[in-house]
Amino acid sequence: MKKFFIALLFIPAILFSQTGPKIEIVGGDNINTNKHKRGQELTYDITFKNVGDQDLMVTGVQTSCGCSSALAGSDAVKPGETGTIKFTFNGQGMGSVTKVVMITTNEGGSSTKNVQMTMNMVDPVTLTPGSIITEGKVGDELTQKASILNTMDKEIDITEITSNTPVIKITSDKMILMGGDSANLEISIKIYEESAINAAIIIKTTEGEFQIPVLVDVKNN
User: Fold this and answer.
1) Could you write out the DSSP letters of every residue in the chain?
2) Is the separation of the CB atoms in 78 and 37 below 8 Å?
3) Are 43 and 86 in contact, with CB atoms under 8 Å apart?
4) 161 has which bridge partners?
5) Which residues contact 3 (CB under 8 A, 6 or more apart)?
C-alpha cells in the first residue's frame, strides 16, 4: 500500500514538469551587431533555442519598421535544438540605430518575444579636413596635410590616391589601415596659371571611393 501511495505522489510531479515549447534567444534578447557601413544592406542570423520539452513553432515574425525585415523557417524546432531567424536592415541612418524583431511562437498557445537589434551605422572612413580651401599666386607650390581614419572594426586597404588635376600631388604614409588606424597625407599644389583651381583628391579603398574637394583662389602678382 505504501508503494502505491509513493507512485501517486510521483505522477503529478511528472505532469507538472511538462513546460511545453519555450524559446530562448542565444546571447540574450538585446543584440548589438557592432559597426556596419552606412547605406549598405546588412543581414544577421538571430539564433534561438527551444529550451522547452515540446516542439517549438515560429508562427510569425515582424519588425518595427519597413526598413527592416525578418524571416524564419517553417520547420518545428525540437526540444534542445536551435533555429535561426534572418534579419535584414537596409543600412539607412547614422550612428546607433535600433530595430525590434517581434517573434510569435506556439509557446503557451501563442506568445510574442521581442528582440532588440542595435546597429552602429558609420562611414567607413573619416577625412580630415573635409575640404581644402586656400589661396596663392602663380609660381607658388602650396603644401597641405590631411588624414584618413578607419572607423570600422576591420582592415581597410587604400588602393589608390589620385587627383583629377595634375597640379595636385599626394603621398600617404600608409596604404593599409587597421580598425581605428589613420593615414597621413602630404599634399602639394602647384599654381601654374592665374585661374582658380577647383579639383578633388580621390581616395579609392576596399570600402569605396571618397573625395576631399580642393579650392585654390589664385591672386594676381
Assistant:
1) -HHHHHHHHHHHHHHHT-----EEETT-SEEEEEEEETTS-EEEEEEEEE-SSS-B-EEEEEESSTTEEEEE-SSPBPTT-EEEEEEEE---SSEEEEEEEEEEESGGGSEEEEEEEEEEEE-SEEEESS-EEEEEETT-EEEEEEEEEE-SSS-EEEEEEEESSTTEEEEES-SEE-TT-EEEEEEEEE--SSS-EEEEEEEEETTEEEEEEEEEEEEP-
2) no
3) yes
4) 203
5) none
Instruction: Provide φ and ψ at 42, rounded to 5°.
Output: -125, 150
**In contact, 88 and 42? CB cutoff 8 Å:** yes
Is 80 exceeded by the pLDDT of residue 78? Answer: yes
Determine the average pLDDT of the residues in 20-46: 95
Give the integer Cα–Cα distance in Å for 95 and 119.
Answer: 8
Residue 10, C-beta contacts closer than 8 angstroms, at least 6 positions apart: none
Q: Which tens digits make up the pLDDT trace of 111-159? A: 999 999 999 999 999 999 999 999 999 999 999 999 999 999 999 999 9
pTM of the model: 0.75
Kindly list the distances between the CA atom of residue 155 and the CA atoms of 161, 177, 180, 182, in Å, as whole numbers in the listed order.
Answer: 17, 6, 9, 11
